[in-house]
Design brief:
- By secondary structure, this protein is mainly alpha-helical.
- It has one domain.
- The chain contains 15 helices and no strands.
- Helix 3 crosses helix 15, helix 7 crosses helix 15 and helix 9 runs antiparallel to helix 11.
- The chain is globular.
- The N and C termini lie far apart (47 Å).
Length: 285
Amino acid sequence: MVQTIGNPLSWGLRQLQGAGRDIGDVTRRLGGAGAVPAVRVLSYADLGVALRRGLQDFGALRTDVIAAAMLYPVAGACLVWAAWHGALLPLIFPIAAGFALVGPAAAVGFYEMSRRREAGQPAGWLDGIRVLASPAFGVIFAGAMMLAAVFVTWLLVAYAIFQATMGPEVPSSAVAFLREILTTPAGWAMIAIGIPAGAVFAAVVLAGTVVSFPLLLDRDVGLPVAILTSLRVARAAPGPVAAWGAIVAACLAAGSLPLLLGLAVALPVLGHATWHLYRLAVPAD
């Protein structure tokens, strides 16, 4: 077959048309695209089912998911190192705790792997990365930026609480900082204010994201519809959803030790389990 050189102008126009369609689809999904799906009331037993199925996915894809998830402890360690060496020692704990705020978006690759395995398709870490080419990635990225903004806001609030209670001097070492937190009225005040403040951030993110990112990946719906669906799931079953948030927090806390390496296991298991919780909370069309 004779190979010819295509018209550069025609090729450029085709690329622009494709980009225009992609931008138009993202814009549409950032709006109220799609009907709000029906939800069912989650039970405490559903949490066990979701965790069990998440562990099964992790067991079946163990090598792939650990390889993919190693990025998270490395990124977390870099953030902690930057805080340690940048006179931001008071932010080390807020950074570690803040993983729960961005986790729903960070686990999107694991949702895709579980989705493919559930459908009987091959699933591996490359499939988790290929979600970047998914038609849903644009709106998922927008949702991830929203969570990143919440994370930054939490860090600013946490630092303001430190300044108001123990500041403005930064402790000379982690040992001295920990001693001041546990043995001084200023440290007790920071704990008394900081923990409820962090709980508010976590509760808001949990209610708005418990099923929203899996829903965006699975169906052609807009970001507002996905968030509204999550809020409906949380309102229908506040106890089980709160218990799910506690499970996530406990797993991430355990995964932060030692040196955040446990996140390579905790995040994949929670990601797979969240996909199955979504399946239990939002019935299929």
